[in-house]
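User: two proteins, same treatment. go.

Assistant:
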Amino acid sequence: MQKGGAGTLSQKSLADIQKEVDAYIGQFKEGYFSPLSMLARMSEEVGELAREVNHHYGEKPKKSDEAENSIEMELGDILFIVVCFANSLGIDLADAHDRVMNKFNTRDANRWTRKNVEP
């Protein structure tokens, strides 16, 4: 189990997260953005994550007047927009995850060297 923000343990399922985001968006007349707008927004957020990763692990230090953002918050922003995107298209992310894991477990079953495998 992973720690949530501020040292708390999060036990939300993907379904819980999707419902929480839907309730948040549902209180506004504008609702979800169009798929193209969400894709653009996702691209923006991934760029912000790339910038933070570059500051923390790359050769590009922050400028002295740049705001302090965290990789955790940028990943949270990406998760939010992914959930918005899925909700707007009626996609159950837990089901999508299960389907993707099945694909990796079958297609890539022998692709990588496994740890602690006895002959």
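Protein 2:
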Amino acid sequence: MFRFDDNLKVYLHRDPVDFRYGMNSLSILIEQSMRLNPMDTSLYIFGNRRCDRIKILGWDGSGFWFLLKRLETSHFIWPDNKADIVTMTTNVLHALLDGDDITAIRRHPKRDRRVS
């Protein structure tokens, strides 16, 4: 399991994407649809329609990292947030990657596990 720095920005794309998309197509989607810079030090999370796979795209300063995870016995649960772009902390990202229901994580000022 990967662990990411606590200061890392993480963005979740709300709508499912075509999982034939690779690094180039997803970086264009980040620029045009999310209006963000794919070459900053953030992670961008994308899911498929069945919610059993996610793709993560990130830039480390010299190239893109491209990660894929498929859950075998369950599915990822996206937050009910109506925004096109959802930001999350790395703790919530870890919960998502573990297959936890991140919608059950409530916002609390003293807790770092929040979805906005």
